[in-house]
Model the fold of this input.
Amino acid sequence: MTSTNTALRLVRRAGTALGGTRLTRRSLFARAAVFGSAMAINPVGFAIRPASAYGAVCGDAANCSDGYSIFCCTINNGGNFCPDGTFLGGWWKADNSGFCCGGPRYYLDCNATCGTEYSCHCGDDPGTCDHRRSNCVDFRYGQCHLEIACYGPVTCRLVTCTPPWAFDPSCTTTSATDNDTATHTAPCLAGDCPTPLVLRYYDLGGPGGFLGGQVGAERPIQDGSWLQLANGGLFSLPSSGIHYLHGPLWSHVEQNGGPSHFGVPTKDDAITADGLGMWNQLTMRRHRQPFITDVYWSPTVGAGSVSGSIRSWWAASGHERGPMGYPTSDVIHTKDGACEVVRFSKVSGGAVAYRGVVITTPLSKVHGVYGPIYEHWKMSGREVGPLGYPTSDVTATPGTIGHFATFQTSPASGPATRSAIYATKATGAWTINGSLLDAWHSVGGPTGPLGYPTSDAGPTMDAMATIQSFRRISGSSRTQPGFLVDHPTKGCWAVMSSIAATWQALGRETGSLGYPLADRTSGFAGATHYRSQQFEQGIAYSSSVGRGVALWGSLLAAYENAGGPAGSLGLPLATQTITNGVASADFQGGSLSAAV
Done:
């Protein structure tokens, strides 16, 4: 406020120099800005000739009557870019410009587009550089956007020290020169011979552009320099040039350690390959080697970053278009502090489809876990839970009906325990571990008769063993359930298909058959193929003549005395019934009864 008051006092004293002694408060502040800019841009000339303050900032031919078009930055609140309703129509240059350190300064006309409303007028205050013409010059140089044939008058002009064909690829290299414009400028443009960093800043729009106003002076960083701006940062490195980081990417970096933690951008912010977000690549030196961090953002999940081995894994998986989607955290330590992890979310249709993590492991591997498998692993405690760290990525099962990932506890926490989580849309995601996992694979795993798990392992009804349920899936159809039963003395066995359905209907391990004592076996009764399975108190059979039938007790003993399936009775047709203390069943070759 003190500097503003000082400028106002000086403006009042130099009222005639700025165009008159009777000043409104608005004009007073506008002319104070011109006065301050004159002192900054041309202090010696203005000190010698106070009457040239306006000319020192705006250059000559700065009145509407001189016929030149207004600068875009004066009608864009400081933004050095073509306003809405215009397009880049052509360019010319002025050689040996002091504003471009003795090189050419390029003036690019922004012509009104056909169909827009416009009127010829001058800037509204003769005491500022707005007092040039807008929409009055019906002319086009024509080296830019040649595909646009229809045009209106020049609304305004933007300036750059960058050749137009590099500034905008639509412009050709055909040159026109007007050295009479070499002194034309405005307070909202870069001053005399700015640094390359400031020149790029104004190429990107300057104080009224998307990067916003300058927060501080140019500062060193790594082996280059940078400018902090209201909406981001602009960085210059000899190895990669000048690039910006802005908006939510900049906010994430600034709030989580800043450029000194993440590094310096080696490119400008870019739209992600899936078109749903933004990203940039940052680099810094660690142990004399470049260390790269990619920072990403999407409006659906926010911002995060990846680096090191996790970055390499994620890049190989397809970046945000791969199964992991967008990072939603930076690289952080795992819950046990032993490894590193980044959280991810897959975006689809503007919403989160599923979540996951990419994690390093004690075995120096990197794996990605996502979707229902991740949620199930997370619910169990993730890497500090009973499953431990992943030992595989999420992988499709044969036929791509489902997915699975394998896990193992760390040897540091005791004997290593192997586990797997399998998931399908029909069955959900469930864990198989230890002896149950081995037994399941021995009978064919997901493509075998048991199919996919439909529960985690849990205690049997009498709490004497561990049991887990399964269901075989074929396309969209569901078949009968199956079970794995692990008893500490009776062994670990599979009960499958129609035999499993009968065993369940009879009360499972607490029912008439009891615990399984073996896997099912196959045989023939004459020409009829059958399967049978031994239980504590009986046998279950399954064949084309009787699917899932069971015999036990005295009736089973009588049947076996008669030769069983190989005898004259053949295979049972239905599970035995008990009436008035007598068990009976029908067979291929007749009927049999026995007192209970």
Summary: The first strand starts at residue 86 and ends at 94. The CA atoms of residues 532 and 561 lie 17 Å apart. Residues 528-596 form one domain.
